[in-house]
Write a structure and sequence with these properties.
Number of helices: 4
Order of helices and strands: HHHH
Number of strands: 0
Helix content: over 70%
Distance between the termini: 39 Å
CATH class: Mainly Alpha
Strand content: under 5%
CATH topology: Four Helix Bundle (Hemerythrin (Met), subunit A)
Largest sheet: none
Length: 146
């Protein structure tokens, strides 16, 4: 029984680490979005936009390939499964944004960036609410209520 308790504690710590990583990446994405929102389209640095796209991709992948796939508790799994189609849709939209603006791919420049960032912000707001529900069900870290 001691080994089972130790395994549970190790799994829980690993989950807490994944949640912390997800929240850190989320904060970085949101901070970078705020930085871009006040800059005229012609002033965007391709390197900074590419870095943002990489952060965005890492963030949206963290939940799918880390947190949700490893959870074993039935209630958390059921909630994650119920939200998965909507979260997957936000992942797809975020990846489309990333593909459009990743270095060398912004064929029309960054003329549409502000509008696309606004739409991405709405998508991420929906995603964050869903993620916070799953994180709250995990009970591993405090979540933002919204």
């Amino acid at each position: 029984m001691g080994n089972l308790n130790m395994k549970y504690a190790m799994d829980r710590r690993a989950t807490q680490g994944l949640v912390a990583k997800l929240l850190t990446e989320r904060d970085q994405v949101l901070a970078r979005m705020c930085r871009f929102s006040g800059v005229p389209p012609f002033d965007h640095d391709a390197v900074l936009v590419t870095e943002f796209c990489e952060l965005l991709t890492d963030y949206v992948a963290a939940a799918h390939f880390g947190l949700y796939e490893r959870e074993r508790r039935r209630l958390v799994r059921e909630l994650a499964a119920a939200l998965c189609p909507d979260i997957a849709a936000t992942t797809e939209l975020a990846l489309e944004f990333s593909d459009k603006y990743c270095a060398g791919r912004a064929h029309g420049g960054y003329v549409d960036l502000h509008g696309d960032l606004a739409r991405l912000g709405e998508v991420l707001a929906r995603r964050i609410k869903m993620e916070d529900r799953v994180i709250g069900a995990l009970g591993s870290v405090p979540t933002v209520q919204g």
